[in-house]
Amino acid sequence: MDMGIAGRTALVCAASKGLGRGCAEALAAEGVNLTIVARTQETLEATAAQIRANTGVEVKAVACDITTPEGRAAALAACPRPDILVNNAGGPPPGDFRQFGHDDWIRALEANMLTPIELIRATVDAMIERGFGRIVNITSSSVKAPIDVLGLSNGARSGLTGFVAGVARKVAPHGVTINNLLPGLFDTDRIVATMAAQAKAANVSIEEARRHRMASIPAGRFGQPDEFGRACAFLCGVHAGYITGQNLLIDGGAYPGTF
Ligand code: NAD
Q: How many secondary structure helices (H) and strands (E) does the chain include?
């Protein structure tokens, strides 16, 4: 299916690896010119070069921390009026809620709630002027079903979700949609690292820890970043213009509820 967005521009945050990269690649495959952001210049440049070579689209690479005011200013200087914004950043650390102090909460809120809100604020009016805009926030299945060790994620991402629910309805008359994608378990560096820690704690091999986690997912496997990216590209396409304010789980059926 042609998504009808060739020649559009997208700002994709936290996109050198994992889910953000999956979104950048899928948008590039639709002919969207990109500005991609991540913290490590070398990895980011390598990703940009690969996307250019594979698709021929323009790819600007901005190495910065998107959770800081300076990082957001650098990203917006490179891409001041994106048609498409994909919000993403690293997730907060796991732990018992008693260990999280005020500074931990502020960091989680900055990364997973206030940064996407600031970027929406900075870009949405130009989208409204043009009568077209697509905003996708990468959040987490923890918004729908809390994960006990991820209190920071459960809380900060739920704050973003509440904000998006309201603002999506405000901008809907102008051809701008805002949706959240909620990943379950995907095969990315973050999950490899989490799995290694879990295997060590349980004194089992990493392979065994992976098998155990997969057994809890009806699809019997982890998701792949490219399938996440294609769902994002669909939400950014012209055919998704009537989908807004939604929270779409992509989790292989792991969430057990009927709705
Ligand atoms: P990943 O570690 O594979 O990739 C993270 C990417 O974000 C990298 O490109 C990294 O450079 C970049 N990044 C991280 N912090 C950044 C910052 N402050 N500024 C700029 N770039 C930054 O991670 P992932 O698995 O793709 O996860 C992406 C998001 O989705 C995270 O918030 C994660 O918590 C969330 N999530 C992931 C899963 C999963 O199964 N992978 C599940 C639920 C939620």
A: 9, 7
